[in-house]
Write a structure and sequence with these properties.
Blueprint: E1 7-8, E2 14-16, E3 19-28, E4 32-40, E5 45-51, H1 63-70, E6 75-80, E7 91-98, E8 105-114, E9 117-125
Antiparallel strand pairs: 1-3, 2-3, 3-4, 4-5, 5-9, 6-7, 7-8, 8-9
Length: about 140
């Protein structure tokens, strides 16, 4: 992950109750300075979370376009749409992403409203998390 232009806020991984973590920022084309949060073991990625800047936030109608813009070389397939109980602007969707020569990864796109406007996050994981399923 060090070759991606991420400016880490700490030198190494920090051991926490959820695993090893690392926090930083990266500049993404068209989205600007984006917060990056890594969670995993010392040798394996568990999940990477990105928080888009408030002025570049997207609502759920733009999730497909945003994933395709960030990962243009990937094959992308939506595997879960927004859940029925999610709001009009806020919501989530899950995508399977396959980069040439790599195993599939999963992307959870999420948007919610706050005092600052719409917040957008993107979680990338090696496996579909059961936490990403819709409620009953």
């Amino acid at each position: 992950m060090d070759g991606l232009g991420i400016k880490w806020q700490q030198a190494g991984l920090k051991q926490t109750p959820v695993g090893y973590t690392k926090f930083g920022t990266v500049k993404l084309d068209g989205l600007g300075e984006t917060t990056v949060f890594f969670i995993g073991s010392r040798s394996e990625l568990g999940r990477v979370s990105l928080s888009l800047p408030p002025d570049k936030a997207v609502d759920k109608s733009e999730f497909d376009v945003t994933v395709k813009r960030l990962l243009p070389a990937a094959q992308i397939k939506q595997v879960r749409a927004s859940c029925k109980d999610e709001g009009v602007l806020g919501g989530t969707a899950v995508y399977q992403v396959v980069l040439p020569g790599h195993r599939p990864a999963y992307v959870l796109m999420g948007a919610g409203t706050s005092k600052m406007g719409v917040d957008t996050s993107m979680d990338i994981a090696a496996q579909f998390s059961k936490d990403w399923n819709c409620g009953p």
